[in-house]
Amino acid sequence: MKTIATCAVMLAVLLLNACRTDKKDAVVFKFDSNKEVSGKKIAIKDVVPDLPLDWDDYDYVSIEFRSTTPQRFHLGFTTDEGYNELRLVSYVPKAWNKLVIPLRFFREAPAAMHDIASTSNQPRVTGWINLGGKRGALRGVDSIGIRMRAPVNNPEIELRGITLHKEDPGDEYLEKIPAIDKFGQWKLGDFEGKIYSEEQLRKEWDAEDAAINEVEDFNYSLYGGYLNKKVKSTGFFRTEFINGRWWFVDPEGYLFLSFGINGIRPGGDLYTKNIDKCGNMFQELAPRELFIESANVSPETHSASFGVWNLYRRYGENYIQESAKMAVRRMTGWGINTIANWSSPHVYSLNRKAFILPLRGLGTTNSLMGLADVYAGDFHDKLDKAVEENIAGYKDNPFLLGYFVGNEPAWLTKEERLSKLILEGEDCPVKTEFLKYLKKGDTPKRRKEFIYKTFEIFMKSVSKSLKKHDPNHLNLGIRYGYIEQLNDELLRMSKETFDVLSFNCYALAPDHAKMDYAMKISGLPMFIGEYHFGTVDRGLAQSLWQVNSQKERGGAFRYYTENGFAHPGLIGASWFIWCDQNINGRSDGENYNCGFVDVTDRPYPHMAAAAKETAKRLYYIHAGEKEPVNVYPKAVGHSPVPDIWE
After folding, report:
1. Is 70 left (phi over 0), alpha (psi -120 to 50) or beta?
2. In the chain, how long is the greatest CA-to-CA distance?
3. Which of 45, 147, 221, 373 is deepest in the core (most CB within 10 A)?
């Protein structure tokens, strides 16, 4: 029999719960896959009746939600100044969680950073944020909107809480069942090819080991050039314009097209991600010691790289060396002939494939949005020393294709913002020179001219130093963020400083008309530094260009690559990236399904098959002897969502 005191406590709890008015039952947002954009706006009072309309006194908003999909969604608020939204991705689809969004992301432009990704991507514990939309004050906040572009499989998002905070309360995973299994896979959903046991995984690894030596003939030379045609050899890679088409020429004199993959680092990103605040998200964590060696991790930081852990399971203590050898074997089997940017020295130092190196430490900074203070008294000496250190050990290596000078500088197309950062910032040499330049007139045009003048000094300085220390290898230029940035002035400067014009191009296929113009003005062959396609079946986000299945990833890869190389000026293209990103995000938050290899160290069959077929055809396509594949894929990009709702 219950005591009176016990009954009183129970009654008090019931009354307390009955009086809570902080939130109502979950509101469900349903997304229609038949629509280009699907979503709705609702009154905030339908979720939280008493939330203030004026958010000036708050710095964080927390949303409590559950999404059936890892697909990127747009979340925004209607204010007195209009509608203001960001892009969000959940690391824990099918799980309730709290994701905290700093309100400065809605109020002001992102902080000045070095490149586009670090400017836009903001990591959290249970998801990540990609900045976009318009900025403004958060007053009169009366409604919330959630929408998706090209939603896959009619997903849903349930929203049951919105709270405001002055201090960051931290994200929170709210389920008892872990979201990520011991292999680094999505635990809350099933998908084709999922691993459920170590025994199953070892059988698949053994099957690949047995089949990997069945290499198809791609008619490649020692360096990956085409035995179809040979011209003058110099012992190093160079470029040549032959019968109206640009080509690389390999060290033996064979025509060469760079067909590569970025980030060939077995196991994926070897950075660390602090997981101390992830709660119950993980089924099991890898030993700390595993990452101290491979990723130069502080022993005090408990971090997770499931891709590396799976390599340790596969190969044991020699996992770094053995996985590097397997990467080269896979490349040979798939027809991939270039180890592209940001790859592991354990792979390219084997000297089995052509490789590309990024130059580091050249003086570009976050505070100048990826520009360098070329007016500093010690700039040229520091630059020269950095270049000399970069090329040490490589200047006589014939497998080195060339060097990239930089990647996606954030200041391009944002020259006015950079100008204000310099002029309103602390005293420094670039500010002194800028003020001196503006004495003859301070106009938007002259501000832009100064920024470009500064950039040109940087480009010419790098080119001069590179030729001094390594005259053998190509200057592949700066990987501009996208081809639309390439105005006449940039094309002129590139012509005078680079051997190859490079740009990243996330699209269904490269735009030949824009490439025609770029080649005409610059007079240079072209290299596409990044492209990819992804989907949402494995708990990962869909990448910058979305398709609806793994099979469609392979088809989109073939369409893009073959149609790109059909252009007479394109001599290189590199897929981004070798291994899927960690399901709980890399250092800037991204968790894309963009790999040729998954977290369990198994190739995606459709990607490998697509690479093989395209590799056999690229020479003939670029030579104009064969047409590129014309099966038009269904794919949707990362561009801003049209201003439409249900």
Report:
1. alpha
2. 99
3. 147
What is the token pair recorded at 460?
């010419």
End-to-end Cα spacing for the chain: 57
Q: Is this prediction's pTM over 0.85? A: yes
Burial of 207 (0-12, 13-18, 19+ CB in 10 A): exposed
> What was the pLDDT predicted at 645?
81
Tokens matching residue 602: 């198994």
pLDDT given for residue 273 in this prediction: 55
Instruction: Tell me the backbone φ, ψ of residue 273, rounded to 5 degrees.
Output: -135, 120
CB atoms within 10 A of CB 596: 25
Number of Cβ atoms within 10 Å of the Cβ of 493: 19
Annotate 373-385 with b (16+ C-beta within 10 A) or e (fewer): bbbeeebeeebbe
Question: Following DSSP, what letter does each residue of 52-83 receive, concatenated?
Answer: -S--TT-SEEEEEEEES----EEEEEEETTEE
Range of the domain at 47: 22-173
Two structure tokens written together for 629: 């594949």
DSSP for 164-233, please give it.
EESS----EE--SS-SB-TTSSBSSS--TT----HHHHHHHHHHHHHHTT------B-TTS-EEEEE---
Query: 98 by DSSP, 3-state: which?
Result: strand
d(CA 554, CA 556) in angstroms, rounded, equals 6
* Strands annotated E in 250-398: 254-256, 258-261, 338-339, 354-358
Rounded to an integer, what distance in angstroms lies between the CA atom of residue 62 and that of residue 161?
8
pLDDT at position 227 is: 98
C-alpha to C-alpha distance for 382 and 258, rounded to whole angstroms: 32
Residue 318 lies in a domain: no
> Whole-angstrom Cα distance, residue 346 to residue 529?
21
Report CA dihedral (598, 602, 606, 607) to the nearest 10 degrees. 60
B/e letters for 233-254, b = 16+ CB within 10 Å, e = fewer, are eeebbbbeeeeebbbbbbbbbb
Cα(260)–Cα(596) distance, integer angstroms: 11
Structural domain contains residue 73 = yes
Low-confidence ranges of the chain (pLDDT < 70): 1-24, 270-277, 286-304
- CATH, residue 156: 2.60.120.430
- Could you give the 3-state DSSP secondary structure of residue 351? coil
Of the candidates 541, 544, 459, the one whose C-alpha atom is nearest the C-alpha of residue 498 is 459
Predicted confidence at residue 287, as pLDDT, reads 65
The single-letter code of the amino acid at 374 is V
Matching residue, tokens 């390594």: 470
Residue 410 counted as domain residue: no
How many whole angstroms from its chain centre is CA 564? 20
Query: In the prediction, which pLDDT does 295 show?
Result: 45
For residue 483, list its beta bridge partners. Answer: none
| Other Cβ atoms within 10 Å of 366 Cβ, number | 14
Phi then psi dihedrals of residue 51, to 5 deg:
-70, 135
The C-alpha R_g of the chain, in whole angstroms, comes to 26
Count of domains forming the chain: 1
| Rounded CA separation 530/342 (Å) | 12
The pLDDT value given to residue 249: 98
Residue 642 lies in a domain: no
Helix (H) or strand (E) holding 123: strand 121-123
189-205 burial: b if 16+ Cβ within 10 Å, else e: beeeebbeeeeebeeeb
Sort strands 37-43 and 82-90 into parallel, antiparallel or unpaired.
Answer: unpaired
